[in-house]
Design a protein that fits this description.
three-stranded antiparallel sheet; 10 strands; alpha+beta
């Protein structure tokens, strides 16, 4: 369990009620990214506040109404996943730099210089990101950001990346969850069919195909129908 002194505040507002908890920054960040963590180790204290700095605790009735439970670990999970983390400047800077390098590495492995037909080194990508004044969000995945960043880099760097156009059909019982995943990408077209299933067309960097196949197959127990067409961006 993290100490109160080393913890940060996670905040969440529901139905006009404000809730805060004290959490370990690294563990809470990992949870927000979708990783499995120890909720008990994430919490600095088993209390839910309306104002953590003042030590003002939330009322039990308000907690129950907002979260449907009094289990602090379950409440903490909901607050971190759906709310905001008050990261320190140094921690945020560290996570931005980690995400920048992940994105640059992905682009270096999946894009080429169309003039020479060879990949750009990662350091060149990072330098071009600085020149193009690319903003990286530490709370968004590489998948969510790479398409926009490649477009920004084209203003300062000759770069080309293969794209995959995927036509996807999701059975009705999985459509809601799958739609949440698809929203992370560039949806060109979507249609809810009369039987409740979801048909969508998305365009992604070709290097992300394995990732989206894995995600959709996990959600749909392998029942997603995916047809692809690869083209040059």
């Amino acid at each position: 369990m993290v100490t109160v002194e080393d913890a940060i505040i996670a905040r969440y507002t529901k139905d006009g009620k404000h809730f805060e908890i004290l959490v370990d920054p690294e563990t809470a960040y990992n949870l927000k990214e979708g990783k499995t963590v120890s909720l008990s180790r994430m919490l600095a204290t088993n209390l839910v506040f309306t104002d953590a700095k003042k030590g003002t605790k939330a009322g039990s009735n308000d907690i129950q109404a907002a979260f449907g439970t009094s289990d602090v670990e379950k409440i903490a999970e909901m607050i971190v996943k759906n709310g905001d983390l008050q990261l320190t400047t140094n921690f945020r800077r560290k996570k931005i730099e980690e995400r920048r390098k992940q994105i640059a590495n992905f682009i270096s492995r999946n894009a080429i210089n169309p003039q020479t037909k060879v990949p750009h080194p990662q350091d060149r990508i990072l330098n071009a990101m600085d020149i193009a004044k690319v903003n990286v969000d530490p709370f968004k995945s590489t998948e969510q950001q790479v398409d926009g960043i490649v477009k920004a880099l084209k203003s300062v760097l000759p770069i080309s990346m293969e794209e995959a156009e995927l036509n996807i059909e999701i059975p009705a019982q999985y459509a809601g969850r799958a739609h949440g995943v698809l929203k992370e990408y560039n949806i060109r077209k979507e249609q809810w069919l009369s039987n409740g299933s979801l048909a969508a067309k998305i365009v992604i960097p070709a290097g992300l195909k394995e990732s989206i196949y894995r995600k959709l197959n996990a959600i749909t127990a392998g029942s997603a129908k995916i047809m692809e067409e690869v083209k040059k961006q």
